[in-house]
Design a protein that fits this description.
With 262 residues, the chain is an alpha/beta fold. It has nine helices and eleven strands. The radius of gyration is 19 Å and the shape is globular.
Amino acid sequence: MLDLVDGIQIAASDKPLLDQATLLAKKLGLAPALVISDVSRCAYPLLLYVTYDGVKLQTTGKKAPGPVWVDFLSGAVAHRRKFGGGAGQMIAKAVGVKGSIRPTILDATAGLGRDSFVLATLGCQVSMIERSPIIHALLEDGLSRAMADDEVYDVCSKMKLLQGNSIELLHSIEPPQVVYVDPMFPHAEKSALVKKEMRIFRDIVGDDEDSSALLEAALDVASARVVVKRARKAPLIEGRAPSYQLEGKSSRYDIYALAKLT
């Protein structure tokens, strides 16, 4: 796994943002930040880009796709919060949300935090672990902006962000009732992972080659269940077989039941 990628550059989209970008560069141990206003003519292939909207991962060049960033305030995430189906969603059933039960959850592979946000909207207390410093920076920025918004403040106040290796951190934090795992596995080039977000993710973090070790650590720590999200036809993680599965059109949840949720 890679924590950073060759050629990444911290940049600000405008001079007033340079101080913020400089602090971020120092925190991540990267080269000094620059002001880059035109990404189509940038010499660096990938920017961690500080803009007035937030911190974004931005590929460069004339045909570069739009940025990847953490946004809990608009788009698909906001639509799902308002119209996603609440406790009837498959993810809610997978983690055990039912009636008044709202388990404490540790998302061991936070990514852009979307599943954690959904679980927090359901009323669960969610801790997130992200081991890539770059992705963690996006999450930290997205949470900070969301906490300043009255509409989602209560949801985001239920989300706690940690940075590090989940296999190590799982044993040093208060045990959750549920550990949620959504690992990135090798996929064929024609798979859904060709989407811009996943292409950049693969450049940044690579595949989760230690997923079986993570599953074992999760099973050691969770008090009630471990939930693994997978593509519908993907193989099981090597090791213990799940207790049961919930299957949707494109994804499924492998549930490892350890004890009854209360």
